[in-house]
Amino acid sequence: METQTLTFLFVGLSFAIYIAIAIWAKAGSTGEFYVAGGGVKPIYNGMATAADWMSAASFISMAGLIAFLGYDASVYLMGWTGGYVLLAMLLAPYLRKYGKFTVPEFIGERYYSDTARIVAVICLIFISFTYIAGQMRGVGIVFSRFLEVDIITGLMIGMAIVFVYAVLGGMKGITYTQVAQYCVLIFAYTVPAVFISLQITGNPLPQIGFGSTLASDPSVYMLDKLDQVITDLGFSAYTDGTQSTTNLFFLTMALMAGTAGLPHVIVRFFTVPKVSDARKSAGYALLFIALLYTVAPAVGSMARFNLVNTINGDEVTGTEYSEMPSWFKTWENSGLLAWYDHNQDGKIQYAKGNPLDGKKPTFAEERGAQGERIVTNPGKGEVAEGAPFANEVYVDRDIMVLANPEIAGLPGWVIALIAAGGIAAALSTAAGLLLVISAAISHDLMKKTFAPQISEKQELMYGRIAITVAILIAGYLGANPPGWVAETVAMAFGLAASSLFPVILLGIFSKRVNRKGAIAGMLTGLIFTFCYIVYFKGVFIEPFAANIEENWLFGITPQAIGGLGMIFNFVVALTVSHLTEEPPKEVQEMVASLRIPRGAEQAHAH
Amino acid sequence: MTEQENHEAYWRENIKLVFLCLAIWFIVSFGFGVLLVEQLNAIRMGGFKLGFWFAQQGSIYTFLALIFFYVHQMNKLDKKYNVND
Questions:
Q1: Nearest CB to B57: which of A294, A592, A596?
Q2: Which CATH architecture has domain A3-302+412-481?
């Protein structure tokens, strides 16, 4: 069968499974809608958490990021897995013992304050919408590239599917679809990785393969060869870092604490029956995440290796356009790959340096002599320091995972699998985010703050309305991605790390931190981090200062600043609390009871 | 021992365990993966430089082992102080 037919078949089949699960798992009460009735087995919750957490960014973008950044990208691997250690030991079991529905609810009750709850709701909505925009864009990319429908049609289909199982099934439907989506995405990610690892190193385990010798030359290790090949092209060595240690340190911290502070991840631990299950299920979640996260660096290094060798050829002199494999041309058609023949030799060469004038290529209508797309914004074609020739190729990082099976020449069904996996990763994360947004609105804002008189049935209806509106907004953001989406992903992590994480942690581990301390701490972390990012990145407005090392505070990039914001939050919250009165007796008793596993009932509304 | 003293003793042991785990968590990631990466890269493990391996593989395996170790120890602790659920 043709790849195209297979792709339709795989994607269609996976959609049929998701819908069948949705019909089977319809939610009847607010408990089922918000926390799946609190009866999810730890291993299933682990899978659902893994799918919830691993987004289009993890599936599509991360290996590409590693491929081009090498060692420097390690902070994402460590940050996004190390956060689960914090979750398992510092947050998940205690929030499960608390036994209610949402993160703002905990903050509001622990700090006996509607203000604290509303600040938490604002952080949550901002973080979650930022994320969703990225997921919807992921769905659009996969649909338009593999199914050759336009992005809007692809988005509509994606929205319709999420609508069916999220609105009907709530958390219950989402949980069991996420279990299915995890299976699809992990299979789709590891199968091509195993093939590629076998091809390049002869070892079927990618985690070991990228530390093995080459199948073509058993006297050389793959990573050493890669280091040598790319340093010859003017790049820095793959296994060495280029960023400052301080910045890597704070970035890792921001990513770890940000992961632990993300509401859609935390709320997954409200769905298990017992406190001990919450701990165990954090372990399962990391196990299932690690299956992808330990393969990703192997995929990244091998993709870089394949890309360089395919383009430059064995002689490192370049390859003629007409001799390039078909994937080069398909991705060129999508505009994510481009070639400009700077030295006019008719061959494609890849080395360090920007081939373009600007960040993205623009193309003319007509084709060049060899049938290539003509780039209308070429750079000057200068040879970068240490490179043998000028770089002529523009590669978007996002294509590395999607194009990898084609670059390695794998069969059509593997490529079809990647498409189904990418869509599963994007949809599962989008659904989890939609649910926390809807819960924050119907539960924290309506039921707990502005309309306490509504019945459970009405609350459930508001929840479903909120999720529907959220899907429409998410679809709009996916169709018209605002320019600041990429910038705000850094902000989502920074804000989760600097606002939510410290106050939740202190709420459990300190009986002394009071309302004033928590609000002051949250606002300090939030405002400091937000302003630092806007100052350099200019969300909505022009940046105030150039985003360069000389201008940064202690050499910390805007992505990493959440780590510092978190420290400020802790210091301010503790200082203010110790200068003001103790929290009321019943709050101190509540904290004491959080720490004891016994007596955790199923999550309830009262 | 009153119930409250029992709970406080349980909490102290829990904190000690968490500190131990987080110390290891910090050493393998921030320590081996970031601060000491250059020194460790002088050591080879097959095709990997050791610092690079910790940053991209070893830290993740250690995190996993840590959580399951913590789960196991906490379950024992819960029983010892009779606070298990």
A1: A294
A2: Up-down Bundle (1.20)
